[in-house]
Amino acid sequence: GEYCKEVDTVILKKAWLPDEDNIEYVPIDTEFNFEISPNSSVDKGPCFQKDNYRFGKWIKIKSTDFSTKNFFFTITKPEQDRVDVFFDGTYSQRNFTNYQCRVHYWLNTSQFEVSGQFPKISPFPDDTENVIPFDVYFFVSVRGFQTVNVTIKFWQKDLHLWPYTYEFSQSDLDYLAEDLSRKYVKTVPVETLGNYVVTPCTPYLYMKAVFFTLTLNSTYSVLVSTKKQNRVTNMVEMISNKVDGKFVYSCAEIWGGVPVGMFADEIQNGILVRIKGDDRPGVREFAILSDDHQTDSEMEISVVCPNHCHEDLGNGYCYASEGKCVCNPGYGGDDCHLLCYYNDKWQVNDYNDLCYFGESGCDQYCKCQEGYALKNHFCVSVECINGGIGFGDECILGTEGCQDNCHCNVDSGYITTMNSKCKLATCGNGKIDFDDNYYNTVTKLNSKEECDNGTNCNKFCKCNYSTGIFGYRFCATFAECVFISLCSYIVHEY
């Protein structure tokens, strides 16, 4: 478990950086191997950690060893060494009063190799051309009292493509388009696999990036979101071209992850970006950027707005923040097509084999879903047809207020109850509600209610006993009816 222990190998320092005797220089293109153990030196590196003091080793590289714009490295450890290894670096120089964490990677217990990069940027503000030599310092450390063998190598290269952590093919995205409820949820592994970059979209910002591609040529859009965890992330799209044997990147677009505007405080941090499928057909290159070196986030990939919501026809538009089409009256479904049934009217000529759009079991194209049969333009479950209750059914066929699809007739004022029966929405308000289009042969009134909250009146506004002519608002037995009739006769006579 985690515990503290007194050690006598702490490096004594006069400033934030140890003396040069405690820092080992690693030449370019050299595999440098060393061991970290409970016998190693103890210090704290340039990056903040939960437990600042750790067993580790200081190393450095020289900028003059590299002629390219980026430093590249690989760290490995044996598979039997299931130890957390941390690689923390800084461009700050020995004579600087303050230092900055500029490089941070983590090899977890089940990870045995990590490769990364960071740009060759001078730590001197006035040295815009990178002509002043400088050193980059690293502290390689372990968590706890562990022993591990570490091999590290630094190198450079001219021909460079961004390392893509995720590559989504056209078939991957078409799979999402088949069912818009599907989505890919991917970790954005900033701490373990992120690369430090200065992109053409962010030339003055030094951030850690995780790269991915979308191969896209479609009439739908792809929605990319990192809002779930409410962390500030940004996203850029770049275009790569090979010029004179080198890859040259240009900026296509940038999206910020900090909300702005009147309602900014009510909006989650992170990006929510709609990528239109036919804007630039082919492989499109993106990066999620973060200035938090140590915190991973999540990225959700989904498909939205098929056929671009038929915007060209005026049927609707794609509402990215809701992740769906918003359709004009008479249009609907996933892509704002003309609805076959709308506002109680058919909008197509041939509707013999179609169901009422909006009713249970009826899909966006007025076809019954699997497990349902068409009856009088309703989609009916097998259980409903046989006098039972199927999944999603509300009432038993043939009972009051129950439609042919075993759902309560909302248009006629009925609501669903827990008893597989339909109930008038007005039942329970303490009064009889009248309907000129209905005649009740029991109460001899223009009302579907026999009673409402009166004596012997049940929760469906029906009498528990047979009612007589005095069944208005309350229910009476036959004997009560005789008594009331007799009293009425006597009063009338006198």
UniProtKB/TrEMBL annotation:
Taxonomy, superkingdom: Eukaryota
GO molecular function: kinase activity
Keywords annotated in UniProt: Disulfide bond, EGF-like domain, Kinase, Transferase
EGF-like domain ranges (all copies): 301-337
Residues that span the membrane, as ranges: none
Annotated S-S bridges: 327-336
Protein name (Swiss-Prot/TrEMBL): Protein kinase domain containing protein
Organism, as annotated: Entamoeba invadens IP1
